[in-house]
Amino acid sequence: MNKDFQERIEEWKNFLFIYKFALDEINTKLTILNDEFQFVHQHNPIEHVKSRIKSPESIMSKLQRKGLEVTTENVEKYIKDIAGVRVTCSFTTDIYRIYDMIESQDDIEVLSVKDYVENPKPNGYKSLHLIIEIPVYLSKGPEFVKVEIQIRTIAMDFWASLEHKIYYKFEGEIPGNLSTELKEAADIVHYLDSKMIRIMEEVTEFKEHEKEAELREVGVEK
Ligand code: GTP
Ligand code: MG
After folding, report:
1. What is the CA(81)–ligand 2 centre distance, in A?
2. Residues 155, 189 contacting (CB under 8 angstroms)
3. Structural domains in the chain?
4. pLDDT in tens, 1-38
5. Is any atom of ligand 1 closer than 6 Å to the C-beta of 61?
6. pTM of structure
7. Is 148 a catalytic residue?
8. Which of 21, 72, 106, 124 lies at a CB distance of 3.0 to 4.6 Å from 136, suitable for a disulfide?
């Protein structure tokens, strides 16, 4: 193999390694926040977390799509989703809880927020997207790494994964009737998410009344 080529491959591997460290840090943070929340509120806002590093092939084709030269400098400057984390939660309200917890971390800087929950995309896509920056402490000092975080409910995730598959099956040109059906499915997903919150609120209220009744029984007024 050509030496120059091999050196470039090594350079890229080293360059991408730091994104793995950033994901490790975010994953640890999310686990701690979720466990603490469970301990304090007896409810865990996070259902599951999935993370991925964009493949060198996808990074290169994204740069080419943007008409940019394939250099590590351009990657750092223009590609913000090399490290990606997807956080799935039960309720829409949890999305903003998780956002608040991330935003209030001293070492995390939120660089941008796209709220497709409040303002869904025309196709019905909902999720909260953040680009954050987190320091990774290497032997030579801290390096600031960008990570894309997508936060959505299980129902939103169900819809998005199906839509993603269909999108690729039709190479980005989904036929009109299928788009309409997908949009209808998105509306049902949004209805389901609101319904789930109402049920959860009723459960909480019921449990509070039950607790008050128990306290009254033992003679303690709240
Ligand atoms: P990219 O250049 O593709 O990263 O998009 P962008 O810079 O316009 O950012 P945006 O926040 O809109 O989307 C980023 C990511 O969100 C995508 O890579 C997908 O993972 C996800 N996403 C955005 N829109 C959709 C959608 O309509 N359907 C699905 N299934 N996923 C979407
Ligand atoms: Mg992307």
Report:
1. 6
2. yes
3. 3-154 (3.30.460.10)
4. 576 888 877 777 778 899 999 999 999 999 999 999 89
5. no
6. 0.91
7. yes
8. 21
